[in-house]
Give the backbone structure.
Amino acid sequence: MAELQISAVEKVYPNGFKAIHGIDLEVADGEFIVLVGPSGCGKSTLLRMIAGLETVTGGTIRIGDRIVNELEPADRDIAMVFQNYALYPHMSVYQNMAYGLRNRGFPKDQIEQRVQKAAGILQLDGLLDRRPRQLSGGQRQRVAMGRAIVREPSAFLFDEPLSNLDAKLRVQMRVEIKQLQRRLGTTSVYVTHDQIEAMTMADRLVVMNAGVAEQIGTPIELYDRPSSVFVGGFIGSPAMNFLAGQVDTDGRHLLLGNGARLALPADGAPAEPNRLVTIGVRPEHLAPAEDGPLRFEVELVEHLGADTLLYGEASAATGGGNGDKGGLVTVRLSGHHALAMGTVLGLTAEPAQLHLFDAATGRRL
Amino acid sequence: MIKRVTFKHKWLPYALLAPQLLITLVFFIWPASQALYYSVLQQDAFGLRVDFVAFDNFAYLFSDPTYLESFEITIMFSVSVALMSLSFALILAVMADRVIKGATAYKTLLIWPYAVAPAIAGVLWYFLFNPAVGINAWILRAWFGYDWNHTLNGTDAMLLIVIAAAWKQISYNFLFFLAGLQAIPRSLIEAAAIDGASPLKRFWTIVFPLLSPTTFFLVVVNIVYAFFDTFGTIHATTRGGPYGATNTLVYKVFNDGFIGLDLGGSAAQSVVLMVIVITLTVVQFRYIERRVEY
């Protein structure tokens, strides 16, 4: 068990490409941290730097009380689960799990005991003599987990471990991994590009974009107060709606590009009048209202059972403005709604549910 | 489902197959049947009499100490060639696999020797080791005090043809080993590194076992090569000598048949070689090709 401390870590490849632009992160003992972001954002690179599979070109990585920058992967006391599982195909399940212990010179009886214990936890008891190719995807995933836990390392590193599984199994394994981590209380860093996986598993998540940690926080913090347009759009499904606008001269309203006027929270706007902003509002925070400031024409309806998703164009309810059509908007209503295509609704949003971002930088105001 | 092409004309498939069949018939089936035919006959050296002797030629072969000795020489030779070319090729492939800058240049240069004809390869090494003018022979004498002479010393002669034959084959093996190495997922090596295996241990416990299908394949290919394709190398250098020290089975077929003019005995030796190559091919198909999959 150990804390993990990443300070000002940078990665510059020999060809000059800067993959990581100085990331600071402190992971508490036993915490489950998820690194999430689109492909190419540097999340896997950061994980591999923690593992020692990539060199660190700037800053320090500390596991427990040791700076591990220059240590070999084997000496960092970490275990890693790979996307393709990386099981040794010519070894049995037992040998796969025992390999790391054998290399470290554990006595035979202790290896036996640890492997049996891990196999029990992961329900692999009857499979110890099989070869990886004789196992199903979920079982292989468990063996990869087993190989990590027999070592009892100070940290687990997961590199998109569920992306090779089908959707149903993915949900199941997600729960299993989370429960196992709770039970073992081992500090974990988990990389994924799937925001649902990130939201459901993380104690805290790090949203990464182009080598920068855009925001670090609990799933709910990120959901409720995204620090940038990028985080707002990345966390939550369906994605947050964004509309271009401007703070009105009175400072109490927002003027949308399509001419609609939305009220701001009574405690004052977070921005001075006339400032150009991007307004973010989640699909579930848009509600139908007869006299709502937005006019919404339904173009597509998706019935998900618990929810109904409406896609369409939003424009100003009253005349005036520049007459622009506005933007594409998603609305999420709970329950069933029999709405035909082409139906026109009025929409409104709670002032408190509006997120304001600077139009130029995309940062939260 | 395999997609089948259907021809409208009955004769077209035969016409398309004809060139290949013709080549097989003229250069393989016909000579092979001639060898079978001659192997049960005995001719006098002047070609005046031909007698049917059934299996006498074979019986004579296996009671002939020079033939049995040639068998031993051939086995020694092929095992040495296979071992030498495989191990050097593997070392080179492992190193080339790590090279990032200029990898293509290395690979291209390492593949070149394969384009050299066996006889030329033989002559090349023959010069290098020539006791009078060869630089290698000179180095051996000057630095190690070893008086190399492959025209007199049987061991030297054997070493010479092993080196010449193996050198040429390294390129071929290198290509296959490199492809095999590149097919091993990087993450396996990384997982092993995290599992605390030193680079050497990673090689022996992960890389080498995963390469074994390639290795098995190459062992058979190399043995077949050493058995059958090295005639040119030997003919251009030692000519089976000195005192039959490098008289391999293939060279003996030529020697007995075309120099000794014992057509029946030579044909019987060819038949024995044919049986060996058939056996090796069967082994290759039945056991090795099936084991390729993990």
Remarks:
- Chain B has one domain: 64-291.
- The mean pLDDT of chain B is 84.
